[in-house]
Amino acid sequence: MLMDFTGIDGSTLTAEDTQGLAMLGKLDSQGVKDLHLVIAIEQNIAAVMKHICDKIFADNSWQLDIVESVAKGHELFAR
Q1: Which of 1, 2, 16, 24 has minimal CB crowding within 10 Å?
Q2: In total, how many domains does the chain have?
Q3: Quick count: other Cβ atoms within 10 Å of Cβ 36?
Q4: Mind listing the pLDDT tens digit for each residue in 1-36?
């Protein structure tokens, strides 16, 4: 699954974004196993997103990657 936030100018990580990611993280416990989640996000908030996602998906079977462009995300899927 690729989530693309790169086209949102001046975006910041909101409480709603964090809540949405937490709800997404619950899918693993509901039987959605071994998903590859790639989040494409602007460089200025990539570190914050990585920190939050590492916490949310810590006990999850999903592979998680944070990238700074959609092209890099597609490269990960091509492997």
Answers
A1: 16
A2: 1
A3: 14
A4: 888 888 776 666 778 888 888 888 888 877 888 889
